[in-house]
Amino acid sequence: EKGGYAHFMLKEIFDQPDCISDCMRGRINPNTCEVLLSAVDTHKEKLAEAKRFVIVGCGTSWHAGLIGKQLIEAFCRVPVEVEYASEFRYCNPVISSDDVVIAISQSGETADTLAAIELAKQRGAFIYGICNVVGSSIARATDTGSYIHVGPEIGVASTKAFTGQVVVLALLALALGKVKGTLPEKEYHDTVAALMEIPGKMKQVLSENAFIADLSKMFTYARNFIYLGRGYAYPVALEGALKLKEISYIHAEGYPAAEMKHGPIALIDAEMPVVVIATQSALYEKIVSNIQEIKARKGRVVAIVTQGDTVIRSLADYSIELPPTLECLNPLIAAIPLQLLAYHIAVCRGMNVDQPRNLAKSVTVE
Ligand code: F6R
Fold first, then answer.
1. Shortest CA distance to 23 belongs to which of 130, 203, 149, 194?
2. ipTM of the complex
3. Residue 34, class by beta-carbon neighbours within 10 Å (0-12 exposed, 13-18 middle, 19+ buried)?
4. How much is the pTM?
């Protein structure tokens, strides 16, 4: 059932190109580069008239939500807030029928997310669910939604569900941006075309597995890690750090790269590995100077770079190359080396990767 892989987690990481294709199937017309998301089609007015979106979720699903915020704000020009479901439900949130709440949950059974939905419903919000498990409690509690269709996720650490969630959020932002007229036609079609290329690019990244496995051996005994990224890569940094914590039990923190100098830089020394998502982006030069600051303090840098990069390659201790894509879709491929890094470090440490201690696949109690 593990299809020849040592663990479900590794299988699920490698399944991502197919999962993403399944997730997009029937939702993108490859000939016209048009997105058709039935929930958006059916609830056009309600979604287009929303004054605000509030995304709720926990853990990895919350990280996907942070990327969703950037996508929806960029394409639909409407404000989006992202809340931990567990905080939202107890903070007497200002929410009304002008709001659309997007609830993200792989299992569809997370107690806090379900409670957040019930509260938002009582206050009149329209609820859009993004779930994996068909017919789950959260899927049933929502007004509409889109399944991510990535197949059962067995490994406790979420991998393919994360990329599936980001794909659905991208489709939602594209479809709604089109309905609202806020997304220029060319950007819409270019983004859809780039999205269709993601499964192939994921395969290229997966071909670096052996290199990442080798690299992981250098970090078996690390006690701490810092993960840095900016913009669309910031939530990926958070997700990379979460993966490492969950399965290798190494303490890891994700930070927006520019926040480093406001505190975490004090932690950097020769013992501190820093994973930096340093792919081509509007803020590339700033990331270069962050890496220089880390190297000046003898931190060990693992950089995730775009193919052909020479500047960061010469600064970093290790570089992992990604094929180029649009910055807004980069999380879909940048997440993969971080998943593999966490996986291989955990394996080197002899940990039970699929069933890490203290964690359950669905958190049905608060
Ligand atoms: C991370 C992980 C958890 C879940 C979180 C939400 O690898 O598995 O952080 O993402 O418990 O679960 P769902 O998405 O099922 O609501």
1. 149
2. 0.98
3. middle
4. 0.98
